[in-house]
Amino acid sequence: MLAYSIRRIFEAVIVMLTVALLAFILFRFVGDPVNQMVGQDTTLEDRERLREELGLNDPVPIQFARFVSNAMQLEFGMSYQVKQPVTRLIAERFPATFELSIAASLFALLLGIPMGVYTGIHRDSWISKTFLSLSLVGISLPTFLIGILLIYIFAVILGWLPSFGRGTVTNIGGWRTGLLSASGWKAIILPAITLGLFQMTLVTRLVRSQMMEVLRTDYIKFARARGLTSRAINFGHALKNTLIPVITIIGLQLGAIIAFAIITETVFQWPGMGLLFIQSVQNADIPVMSAYLMLVAFLFVTINFIVDLLYVWIDPRIRILSRET
Amino acid sequence: MTQPSTPAVRTRWQRIAESDLLFSFRRSPIVVIAGTLTAIFLLMALFAPLIAPHNPYDLKSLSLLDSNLPPAWAKDGDPRFLLGTDDQGRDILSTILYGLRASLLISILAVTLALTLGVSLGLLSGYIGGTLDAIIMRIADVQLTFPAILTALLIDGIASTLLKSRISENSELIILVIAIGLSYWVQYARTVRSVTLVEKNKEYVQAARLIGLSKIAIMFKHVLPNVMSPVLVLATINLALAIITEATLSFLGVGLPPTEPSLGTMIQIGNKYLFSGSWWMVAFPGITLALLVLAVNLLGDWLRDALNPRLR
User: What is the pLDDT of residues B84-123, one digit of tens each?
Assistant: First the structure.
């Protein structure tokens, strides 16, 4: 287990360094940082002084080392566009994306698992068939179209839910949460459904196929022979054994959720990191782009690492296998 | 004496008509519908300038007096504009036809780029191996950590910073093709590499090596034809993904400009007018996009099953 963890950490560090190199190249060579920071009327001497101060005349490997050490101290420079520290911009926006991603994952799990269990047990009922064909149509629709459709139905026609923003936001020690007000709860419903819909269909199909597989096994037949209620069999025995792959997939999908939050945040004007990233791409705001890239890579790598460890911890078969190799 | 077993010489068309592939295509009505729909969309895109009642790129023909008109059958509709007009007075039907052309052109070019790059790298990686293999696969691993849409956005951001000042004509189109193409090469490379690893130890490759063919000739002339069928399936499924990615990028405002709209750009424009009740600006391009993606997806699923020998 320890050797396995160390190997995985080593791999994760390599990935992070590669991404850091990419972000550094982006920052240093795509567009001139000095030109972006100063105005038209800055003299050549002033530019040169700024260049020296920023260390842009040092050898490139030293610059890269400085970039990495700055990044580890969460220091990513100033945004070209809004002239504020990038770290502060991202920190302000992080809670919004975090709350949205968690809400979307919960939606996917709380609806996906029961639907998967149901469609796995009652394979031929019309509810299962309708649901499965609807989910095929659902995954063919791009995320932003689903968002627009939901806005049109629930905000424009029915007028039940707001179509943009986070509602009333409360500040708790720097963490701006929307979950303490009724308007905040109302505002998160549509974005969370939009973001979680794809994951929900994924969880449903996964749980369904796992359930169908597990229900065929001998220990389920034995449990039936012992005369256990079908409720105890389905939930106590079958569902429990389907959850290992579900945990893995949801863990890995958390990364996808963060990435797709970019689209959902744009549709709903949700003031999160994704919206910040899109604005930085539109304005060629390189420091924000490279910081976002590093942050997302870090989140992905950390999530992958935790999921791998969880997997080994939950399933003893893998633990034995990895010890042998 | 029995009949000699030489089969009658058949023309190419007969062979296609009798193939398993066409048989399995005709057997499923859904697949036939999806295929027909895809063909119609392709033809509509190809002949857009001939079919379209108006030319949405011709700024002189636009009149702001015609803007925001609902579809022809609705109240206040204008019979000249069957599906209504957008905020600049462009005919929605014509813009959809031209937009479909742009979307399909970009997606097909992007898939071609991804395929060429991925297949070449996969062949090199699998056939030559060693350090080259390690480097290519490491890059692939790192790229796989990120979802494709994020990679595409990032490449788009970098490319437009680098290129925008140099090329003006069609630069957005080229940037989109590069961004989408570079985000989807990994799957091809991985698939081709794994098949190449199996193929390179087979006798025909050894024979080719013995008669002294060059590595490049063996890879591209002898190994390549044998790895093409999984690549074809991947390409079809990828086409649907590329269409979605292009539409998403355009919707996010980093794709094609509003003057030369693709389906995604049209939906982005229409989205601004949703609250004023102009539903047709979003609905028609949206339906077109959804139908196109659904049809291509269904075709991809069918092709995967039909070309998979294990499922036959």
Answer: 777 777 778 888 888 888 889 999 999 999 999 999 999 8
Measure CB to CB from residue B289 to each of A137, A145, A263 and give the nearest one.
A145
Residues 160-179 (A) with a CB less than 8 A from some CB of B: 163
ipTM above 0.90, yes or no: no
Whole-number Å distance between alpha carbons of A70 and A86 = 12
Quote the number of domains for chain B: 1
pLDDT recorded at residue B113: 94
**Cβ contacts from A onto B, under 8 A:** 101
User: In this structure, are residues B175 and B156 in contact, taking their beta carbons and an 8 Å threshold?
Assistant: yes
Structural domain span for residue B120: 82-311
Contacts (Cβ under 8 Å, ≥6 apart) of B250: B176, B256, B261, B262, B263, B264, B265, B268
- The alpha carbon of B199 is separated from its chain's Cα centroid by a whole number of angstroms, namely 28
A137 chain-B contacts, CB cut-off 8 A: 290, 294
Residue A103 structure tokens: 């809400």
Angle at A172 between CA A168 and CA A176, to 5 degrees: 45
User: Does a structural domain hold residue B73?
Assistant: no
Q: What is the largest CA-CA distance in chain B?
A: 85
| Inside any domain, residue B285 | yes
DSSP per-residue string spanning A84-121: SBHHHHHHHHHHHHHHHHHHHHHHHHHHHHHHHHHHHH
Measured between beta carbons, which residues in chain B are less than 8 angstroms from residue A81? none
The enclosing domain of B204 has a CATH number of: 1.10.3720.10
pTM for this prediction: 0.81
